[in-house]
Amino acid sequence: MAKILTQLKEVGEKVLEIAKKKGVKEAEAYVVSNRVLTIRLVNNAVFEAKGVHDIGLGVRIINEKGLGFSSTAEFSKRALEKVVDAAIAASNARKLPFKYSFPKPKKIPKVQKVFDKKLAELPPEDGVELAYDMVENALKHNSKIVDTAGVLNLVEYHTVVLNTHGISAPNQGTFFEASLTSTTKQRAKKSEGSASTAGRNLKEFKPEEIGRESAEMAVSGLKAKKLEAGKYTVVLDHEPTLGVIGYIAAFVSPMIAKLYIPLFLDKIGKKVASEKLTVLDDPLMPGGIGSSPVDDEGVPSKKLIIIDKGILKRFVYDSFYGALEKKRTTGSALRAIFAVGISAFPGKNYNQEPIPIPRNITVKPGKWKRGEIIEDTKKGLLVRRFHYTRVTNPTRGDFTSVLRMGLYQIKNGEIQNAVLKSRLIDNILNMMKNIDAISKELVVAGSWGEYAHMPVIRTKAKVTPIT
Amino acid sequence: MKRDETLSEDLALFAIEHASKMGAEYADARLEAHYNELITVANGKIERGIINRKRGIGVRTLVNGAWGFQSTTNLTKRGMKKAVETAFKVAKASSKHVPTPVKLAPTKAYKARYATKVKTDIEDVAFEDKIQHMLTWEKALHTSKRIVRGLIDYTGIKINKIFVNTEGANIKFDNTVVWAELKADAKQRNLIQYYHRTVGHSGGYEIFVKTHMEEVSAEIGEKAEKLLKAKQAKMDKNATVILDPDYVALLVHEIVGHPSEGDRVLGREAAWAGTTWWAGKIGETIGSEYVTVYDDPTVPGTLGFYKFDDEGVKAKRKVLIERGVLKGHMHSRETAAIFGVEPNAGMRAITFEYIPLIRMSNTFFAEGDWRFEELIQETKKGYLISCMRQPSIDDQRFNWTISAQEAYEIKNGEITTHLRDVALTSTAPKFFKSVDAATKKITIVPLPGCGKGDPMQGLYVGNGGPFLRGKATLLGVG
Q: A76, A242, A256, B421: least CB-packed within 10 angstroms?
């Protein structure tokens, strides 16, 4: 085991010991070390390079009265005593009206290709050069590019979960996410293009592709025409597909469904999407962007079918919501501040209690190639990017996104002219029901900390020009 | 408010001295102790009860005109050295790709110590008692069987902060902010309607006593129920609309606050957040004489309250728009130098782990000279739009659509039919030019969920204004 994991484990063991001495019924320690290096690019230059090294500890306690949680970023004996005391105080206040116990140990599977030594050991100054490569490639690719802005995040995390039932589950990984927005101008006309990527291994980072894709999209937008408002057949590229499918992760979390977005409550066994759509949570996927051998309670990961041919099969559970609803945990505990989507920085949120949510949501590949979906579309729109995406009415599913760039008309199976900025407004449930084609290829796509392996899909949506 | 006395100012000074010794032309450090508590209660059950503590430092260095930053929770001299050295190293590496070295607009090196006014320290109210309060408030949301879901989300945050820089600034700030978000979902057959409100301030737990939370809860429950009987709104192009301060809060946040961030104006947020339609338009008339907007961190009791920002710049009221003329933006010392203006204390970070960004504090429309009753009486045909719901804004903050929790038709100077599922849409300049009245009194409401940056920093701010009358297209969003 890596030295850092051994150190984290020792801290966790001390916490359990302190808790036992204080007479608690059960205790759990989630101990992390997490490094993030962020290089922000603006106006064709490096704007800032910033690093965060978090170490931290989240403690949960079960005693006769209830469940409590507390966290600290200090590992001194005094701090460990204090954090256990705070968790006990919280447990005295939070009574549970049902029987609850932390998970028991089980055999932990192996997940391949989630830790890249090269990324973990990359000198920060080399990270700066890698980020700047994206800018250079965009400017080199097309001389019409006048401005670029973007980011490269490099993440290394180590976590250990321990509990008084004997769970002692180490987990480590690396991760990068990068994006670049390029801008071009021609007289009064301005056009933007963007590209983004994420992965677990540094060799997956291709700054030349990011630079080229964002530059090409920007330049193509110079000839953009205004769209007529209407209901369109829309081909959603990988990133906007996540804008729709990513919400399913939130919809099948019993916590989020109960508190915030109840769209899938009472829908198990019912049709919630097109029969073409099968949605999975696959945290065992080798190199998967959200893959890990265990969840954030130390429960072994397993593949789950969420939607099978359009039928909602299940909600996902951590141990707490499992106990609450008399179900078993599905190994879906995640410590995340933001309740929607995939947490980009595993281990960062040690100061949060786990919530149940799919950890590596993905879609069963379809039969089509991306190009075939476009060729098969007589009249429609190719949507390559979403911006400012929201479910604006959580009880009904009103959905909106600004199509800021990368929007094209499709006529007789061919991509035509780019289209000026527009807004997509529809109902997310209807959009899922209207899916009639899914691509074979899955690509890691997303933005702003939320990434997943997504296909290209075709559906229908109302689109109106933004004046 | 109780202070974490274990924070050693000497460590922060050691960090910036070490940066200077290494050759940084400027360095600052924020040494912070954080305490926060989160409680969520839904339908009579405690969904979340969390107590968090952390301490750490964030060090910013300027080397050869480029920024570097590193945070650490290792509060030892060794930890400081390591953090400073990394911040120095990445700044130096970045400087190769910074064609125009960063310059900082000058500011006085202030030495100050101040604190938010707190009557009841959040740590002095037993966690168990707070949970009992939330359970009571949540229960009060259920005004009838039609309320199918009730939700209380409570957050309390205490921060002790020491800011020092190599220019000699030394500022200590003890801040407490608390807020509770209350929401009720009402259902009748297939129709679901919800109503929500946030109660909060910079200060202690006393606000929840002063506010009579059970009454607030009951009002929210009743509002949600009443929406079940309201009429579905229908599209009305270029309608006269009177916006209440709660709706104005989200509007001003989205179409004045964000586009006034100096970094955004310079295209530095183009990657994800977007740019600003009014870049380069300072001095131009963009709205009517009733459009005056300030950003003011000095308003005591608001979520955006502070006296010095995270660069040690003394806070003051910033005039963003004055009588329809675009006057200025929010600045860091760096963007102030680029614009050739005085820095105006716009920089904040949510914790020591993050580098400061230009953020709103309390952004609000200024008062006018109307009374609310006059405003209604003198509106022949229009709508009273009440309480924010969800925004959808384009990347230049030009075209906006914002939904409201409820609305009323106004006919011949009287408030009449109650409407649900309503949104307004317009463009920023079109709306600004249409504003023809504002009431005398302004209200600043808490807005705890403002997002910016990569990695994202979620910050609490204040927003608001008076009742405003203008024109926009009314949409039925059912």
A: A76
